[in-house]
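Board notes (copied after class):
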Amino acid sequence: MAEIELLTLSIGLGLAASLLYGELFGLAAGGMVVPGYIALYMDRPVDIGLTLLAALLTFGFLKGVSQIAIVYGRRRTALTILVGYIVGLGMGMWLDSPIGPFAEGAIIGFIIPGLIAIWYQRQGVLETTLSLVTAAIIVRMFLVVVIGDVSI
């Protein structure tokens, strides 16, 4: 199966898993498309960890900004995604540098850290992380059963 088809299927399954997870448990899985992306990277735990770290740094930055400025609604969402993008970009440049800590490791996607950070703000870090990982595992298991080898 071609990579684009695998990505498309994974995102679609992630959307379904996010919707179902929200309806069953009342928790968001870190954004509608995030479980699909994370499911594709389950064989690369360093990438998932770095992405969650970028989301956590974004969350912390926005929490600090919220202490000195009024940030809510659409502005907060846009700012969170923008900061997540910048944090992910900065971490990616650091990881690619000679002083980077990992020989291989990358942030997943451009807006994924920001989307996760939005839900960190709304429902909490632990709840979001556990919901995201659970939904991503469900998507990954479905992909493995249907497709077999799910390597990107």
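Comment from the instructor: The mean pLDDT is 89. The two ends are 10 Å apart (CA to CA).
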